Amino acid sequence: MSLPRQPVCPQHRDRLVAVAGGEARDRAIDAHVAECTGCRAFLARAQRHVFALAELARASAPRDLDGRVVAATQAGFRQDRAVRALSILTPETMPRDAELVIWQQSAGASGPSAPSALDRLVDSSLRGRGADVGERLSSRLERHRAPAELDLRVSGAYERGRRDRVRAERRLLVVGAAALLMALLVASSLFFVDERTVTAADGTLASGRAGVAPTPTIVIERVASPADLDPLLSGTFAGLVGGATDAVRVTGGKL
Amino acid sequence: MKRLALAFVGAVLALGVVQSCSRSGTSTTASPETTAWTSLTPAKAMELSLVDRMFVAPKNVAHGGVRHLVYDLPTPGGVQRLEYLERVVSDGHGQFSITPVSVVSPAMTNTQRETFELIQKQREGFFFNYRDFGVRDRELFGANYRVVTVPTVTSFLGRDCIELEIRRRDDAATWYLALVDSQTGLVMRCVEYTTAGSVLSRTEFTEFTLEPDLEGVEWHETRYAPETTPLTPASISALGFAPAEPRLLPAGFQHLSSEVVTAEGESWVRRVYGDGVESLFVLHRRRTEPGLLEASSETSSLRMGNASSPVASGAPSTVTVRLCQVGPWTMAEASRGLERIFVVGKVAEAEVVRVLQSTL
């Protein structure tokens, strides 16, 4: 049962798989299998696998799969049709005049030009990143002074906002400190409180952490017979082994 | 929270209930027994996959016959053999019966045999559900086991059978060679081997029929078996203590059922975990002798949910775990105050200790 497994000869592997799959055997492979334990075992295994695969239950496709396949296929057809339709459209030709203008521009021929003032304005706007435009527009606005009440209200609102921000920052600080303290407490309990220790019969110790509360040290005591255990436990075991321990007990013996 | 949970594990219960292992048919919704039974004809069964057939067959395919069982328990003093015959009948609608026929080994006097057979009959529910090889959860079976089909069809007691080699994917201590009725999925013969190659158990039909005579069959009666109720807040409240629950399980195992078992006035919690074939039991019980509770200086009363529970107020610094190993099986019991927690299964010792430790 525990004999070392002989490797299959690499040059015969594919042929053996084919034979296992049902292909006809020939004399050469038969002769080789007869004398090579590795290939013989491989062939047997492959045949088992093929058999196992053949035995697998056939899973039926989901009920809506047919519909999905049809829908996907139809979607594909629709896309194909759209591409075909586009490809056969008659291309619209550009008017001849437009072609001529473009040709002239690209060839450096002078065409209609913008007034130089417009050029300057555009140029300065681009350089000033819009600032010039803003200035030009704002300079035309009529300036008014805000009423004194508005000043007071604005400054009051600003002051209230500042105070709220300070209070929020303080609250955040307190909550953060509390969270930090909690985290420290949990960490310390994990490291210093909940140290489990398992003591094996030979006196060796193994320890680990598994929670927050302290857990007791476990001392293992080996028992030779199930009869020395609690009847509920030994009875359950007896049930698992067909009543074997009961037979021993009934006949006056002990495991 | 953990301190609370920890405190609930505190006391010891002592109770000798041999019949504690039986299982009634009215257990939790998670229990495999609560399946709505629909009798499967062999032709109907063929519509299922082989694994599905194996899963449903024992209770859903009407069958009957005599089985020959051999258990070879490896002990320090040598192998202890139990060999006997039993008659099994299933009506295909969830009713079943297992009745001892005769004991081959060890040799017994008439009185010994009668006692043994009474105990066996008392355990038929447990036997039917947990003793024999079977697919107990299809998904877990698929996830944890690999199956090799031997490419020959074997005729066994007039049935065409497929031979399956079934091993845990992570190479457990044992593996199975099962002869399965290809039509119904019933296991006709099963041999369990250790990885060293020795036989641990062998179960096979010596007589078999798909048309059993149901007249006069003594069906497994739940009213004679320990009463089981699902683990609910109400049943926990009636129980009077917070049931321990492992936070760590062996690789591949998942929770299958949890229930409160009551027999002869005593109640305990039974949690069953499985890997698709093997079962791991976690039992929790509290001793109920009057006076002990009041006398115990370790206990105080706490309330968790609806259950008023006497618990250890100061967690004991040391818990003794008693371990017993028989072949591939490991049993462990832990005592704390009035409570006892047990773990048993075909699982390595370190795993059992870890499971038990995670309940404390």
Write the layout of secondary structure elements.
The complex is a heterodimer of chains A (255) and B (360).
Chain A: H1 10-20, H2 27-35, H3 37-55, H4 65-87, H5 96-106, H6 116-127, H7 131-139, H8 148-193, E1 196-199, E2 205-208, E3 217-222, H9 231-240, H10 244-250
Parallel strand pairs in A: 1-3
Antiparallel strand pairs in A: 1-2
Chain B: H1 2-7, H2 42-45, H3 50-60, E1 63-75, E2 78-90, E3 96-105, H4 110-122, H5 124-131, H6 138-144, E4 145-156, E5 159-168, E6 174-181, E7 187-194, E8 199-209, E9 227-230, H7 233-239, E10 254-263, E11 266-274, E12 279-286, H8 292-295, E13 299-304, E14 307-312, E15 318-326, E16 329-336, E17 339-345, H9 349-359
Q: Quick check: average pLDDT of chain A?
A: 72
Q: How do the helices and strands follow one another from N- to C-terminus of chain A?
A: HHHHHHHHEEEHH
The largest interface is: A-B, 55 and 82 residues
Unreliable residue stretches of chain B: 1-36, 290-314
Tell me the name of the CATH class of the largest domain in chain B: Mainly Beta
Number of strands of chain B: 17
What is the number of helices of chain A? 10
Low-confidence stretches of chain A: 191-212
Oligomer description: heterodimer
Structural class of chain A: mainly alpha
Please provide the count of β strands of chain A.
3
How many DSSP helices of chain B?
A: 9
Q: Distance N terminus to C terminus of chain A? A: 29 Å
Q: How large a portion of the residues of chain A is in β-strands, by DSSP E?
A: 5-15%
The chain-level mean pLDDT of chain B equals 80
Largest sheet of chain A: 3 strands, mixed
Shape of chain B: globular
Helicity range of chain B: 10-25%
Rg from alpha-carbon coordinates of chain B: 21 Å
- What is the total number of structural domains of chain B? 2
